[in-house]
């Protein structure tokens, strides 16, 4: 199961039986071959590896040998870029990691339309709108208060739903 994850689905969305399967990643990926180091929590344990592909949200990493790795770590690329991550899958000498901070790796492909939409929605200043309604005394109006509350909830729901679609894995 070299290129397949624990579900038996490989990067192309083909399962072990050769049937089409849903691809769980929606962030665009870039195939690369780049040396890197995995730095474990204490900073004293490092493992050399090769990054096989990378996206805005994660990477597929080939280890030099089968090693038990799990939890949080830092990926340090050979150019010095460092990204906080966590292991989301581990099969043999290959691991999948999800970046845990909001920084976009410099090697990641440019954002797709869905990622760009999520960025725009997240930048909406809903809290500012609610504060302005309150400062103008408009939140005293029952209809405005209910609509503002619904807008706040809808914004949060939309960010969560779009985030799941763009999601890391």
Automatic annotation (TrEMBL):
<feature type="compositionally biased region" description="Polar residues">
    <location>
        <begin position="1"/>
        <end position="14"/>
    </location>
</feature>
<feature type="region of interest" description="Disordered">
    <location>
        <begin position="1"/>
        <end position="22"/>
    </location>
</feature>
<feature type="domain" description="PilZ">
    <location>
        <begin position="24"/>
        <end position="105"/>
    </location>
</feature>
<protein>
    <recommendedName>
        <fullName>PilZ domain-containing protein</fullName>
    </recommendedName>
</protein>
<dbReference type="InterPro" id="IPR009875">
    <property type="entry name" value="PilZ_domain"/>
</dbReference>
<dbReference type="Pfam" id="PF07238">
    <property type="entry name" value="PilZ"/>
</dbReference>
<dbReference type="GO" id="GO:0035438">
    <property type="term" value="F:cyclic-di-GMP binding"/>
</dbReference>
